[in-house]
Amino acid sequence: MADVTIRKPQPVPMLDFSRQFAVLRQEIFDSIEAVCTSQHFILGPQVTSFEHAAATACAAPHAIGCASGTDAIWLALAAANVGPGDAVITTPFSFFATVSAILRCGATPLLADIDPATFNLSAPAVAKLLDSPVGRNVKAILPVHLYGQCADWDAFTALKQNHKLLLIEDAAQAFGATWNGVPAGALGDAAAFSFYPTKNLSAMGDAGLVTTTSAAIDDHARVLRAHGMRRRYYHEEIGWNSRLDSIQAAVLEVKLRYLPKWNQQRRDHAARYDQLFHKANLTADSTASTDKGIVLPITDPRAGHVFHQYVIRTPRRDELRQYLTDRKIGSEIYYPVPLHLQTSLSYLSYKQGDFPISEAAADEVLALPMYPELREDEQQTVVDTIASFYQ
Ligand SMILES: Cc1ncc(COP(=O)(O)O)c(C=O)c1O
Q1: Catalytic residue among 199, 255, 279, 292
Q2: Can you tell me which residues form the catalytic site (predicted)?
Q3: Cβ distance 89 to 129 under 8 Å?
Q4: Is position 128 within any domain?
Q5: Residue 144: CB within 6 Å of ligand 1?
């Protein structure tokens, strides 16, 4: 009798941090030991050193470490003097912090819909808002470089010039991404990064960073992150405690050295997913998903994508996700509820139907396992399992 071996698909986790830690273990322990030996736990030499390394990596003249990506958005806006009476235009298709940080600095968020191909804030939709009566109080635009791909910076730069606005980047998902070769962090007046543990550059806890091309924003952000205090116990204004821990900075500086390699591995994995999906005849012909096909991520030729996430779209998303979960294949939805439909933001008076492209995306997007140490056989398993769902 023939020996028939039935191969059971292996589980594929959405993320597996232990693979990265196994490689960096000693370097990370050494860096933490140095902080313990110095007994300097908040700000201090490790933070200054990481700020310099991060500024160089982003080609930005200034970098200011802080406590989280959420705080980094608030700090960038507040340090640029965005506050009560000002409006800031952003996207409803992002993490909650993009909007809550605008509210935190006392400004009003104004939402505009996204581009259906890249899921990033649509510059034409922003232009329309700027030309409407509510556009009068707009002081800044806050595009998000979603999933690791920069928003259309050519179009936003034109809007900045025509309307004399500030451009602030929510680059939480995009360390190392570029637009026309210019790194995220050096594109706008200021940018905010998150080092939350799932990010492509990740701390071992919460951490964030502001970068800026402006010496004035740099100076103001440093004061604001330390209780509005330039001279100890003399408070010029009401800031906050958003200092970066030395241990996080030390870990981040170790990881920053590996980031170009990791981002390249992410791009390679994305290209392999694309190939495997094409080979399996699973792709739809256009940006519109169909019952039978999925839409693969679309990269603007001007963008240096870092694939923080590899996100497909399909109208059968929830069914597909359940099918993958049943077979222990990780996936995630970024984000299932657009911000204009969040309960806590209902007082902004938006309603269902206001941003149809964001609403459709929220129903259809699905992020697949993506991290530098992901193996080829695991990608094959993900695509084979999706192929069996569509059979
Ligand atoms: C687009 C975006 N903005 C802001 C944040 C907030 O960053 P953090 O979680 O570090 O506060 C995140 C990350 O969660 C994010 O993905």
Answers
A1: 199
A2: 199 (proton acceptor)
A3: yes
A4: yes
A5: yes
